[in-house]
Amino acid sequence: MAVPPRGRRVQQTITQLRERILGGEWPVGGRIPTEPQLVAALGVGRNTVREAVRALQHAGVLECRQGSGTYVVSTDELAPVVARRLSDNRMAEVIEVRRAFEVEAARLAARRRTPEDLAALDDALAAREAAWDAGRVDEFVAADALLHDAVMAAAHNPMLAELYASVGAALRSTLAQAIGDAPERHVDHSRLVDAIRAGDPERAAIEAAAFLESPPGA
């Protein structure tokens, strides 16, 4: 059997690594096998594995942590692109992207929510409010992310959820920037949950849009 050219071997290895990440074998936040283990599992040479891993590091999918190993930090290359946009202070663009995702998700959730979805929304909302009342900003940001994820799940659109997940971490960092330590900036999401529970798509969309207004002058 002919041996594929080196460039093609590297590309095939990148594809194999990406498939295992997307398949959940190596989840986001998890550590991938060591280089010798990858060599044995994939049946390619050390240099091929090294180049493939390096390519995924440059793409923002993997991250090498000195003395610890290599970790999955994203499921695709889209999240790092959004993160770079954030670093360029393009806040107005980011808010517009969030509106595109979250307003439609709220509308769909009001039409498709199940009792299980409503229970998840209630739990996330309660955790969000408790964290805010206690002044635990980091916990509040995490709970707010869970609430928005619950709305997205209630929309029951796998493609929308997948796209949102790929950029969600970068998009949600805008919340931490916006909140700071100012309690007057708290935004009530109970009306959004109520609209979804009531099965009112238009009111849900209005509520979702209300807390994602573009900054003045945008």
Automatic annotation (TrEMBL):
Protein species of origin: Micromonospora krabiensis
PROSITE patterns: HTH_GNTR
InterPro entries cross-referenced by the UniProt entry: GntR_C, TF_FadR/GntR_C, Tscrpt_reg_HTH_GntR, WH-like_DNA-bd_sf, WH_DNA-bd_sf
GO function term, MF aspect, one: DNA binding
Keyword Transcription: yes
Keyword flag Cell cycle: no
Lineage: Bacteria, Bacillati, Actinomycetota, Actinomycetes, Micromonosporales
SUPFAM superfamilies in UniProt: GntR ligand-binding domain-like, Winged helix' DNA-binding domain
Protein name: Transcriptional regulator, GntR family
Domain HTH gntR-type: start-end pairs: 7-75
Keywords in alphabetical order: DNA-binding, Transcription, Transcription regulation
Domain of life from the UniProt record: Bacteria
